[in-house]
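Quick question, first post here. What does this chain look like in 3D?
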Amino acid sequence: TVISMFPVIQRCCFYTSFKLQKFTGPRLLLSGRNMTTWCSLGLQPQRAVCPLSRSPSLKPASVYAAQLQAFHTSLPAFKKKTPPESETEVQKPKESLEDSPKPALYLSLAGLIPFVSVPLVMAIQGTYYPEVAFAQVAYGAATVSFLGGMRWGFALPENSPAKPDWLNLANSTVLPLLAWQALLFKDVTEGAVMLVLALGVALHYDVALLPAYPRWFKILRVWGTVVMVLSLLATVVQKIILEDLRSEGRNEVQN
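> Answer (accepted):
Ran it through. Tokens below.
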């Protein structure tokens, strides 16, 4: 019986190996569920021809290769494209003083020295100087006029996002008029209060009313306005306190 079955086993094994050579790599990977069929070939050689030729689950190798290629090419679609570092740096909004251009930052800080130095010197020496206080008011008037004329320079170029309309140009002329009015007061206190009002109007123009300024410039304007206003108010406070102390000292000397 074994000798009579030997030709049949040899023919089945030869036919099975020939069929295995036709299977490609992707077909073997994707049709792993049919491994039981291959395992049964050695145990049931008389049925080896039928599963290989008539099984509906087995497809040509070209079909599996096409599916594998489509799956491979569809993977990059799920990956999120990240923009280059240069584009992300450009799109990143500037939100701090350190991100502002160095010339604008340093010149603005240098422009605050006359405001801060006046009340600082009077506080150190403990004496109120009317001439120095008036010099601070005069410098503040020049600064307010500069902030008003800066809008003209921003709106006049053809490629500027701001238009040279009544809103931009007329509002800019309000600031020099307020600065001029501050210089007409004989009392330094009234002039300083007028400058505080003018600086508040200028900040409202640059931040809220007249748009299109860069974000770093708006932040710079806010901090600069805070320092200027506090310096002017400090001068006014020291004027009141030091003059009262001087008047009290004179009264004690006379008595």
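The first helix runs from residue 2 to 22.
Residues 97 and 105 are 7 Å apart (CA to CA).
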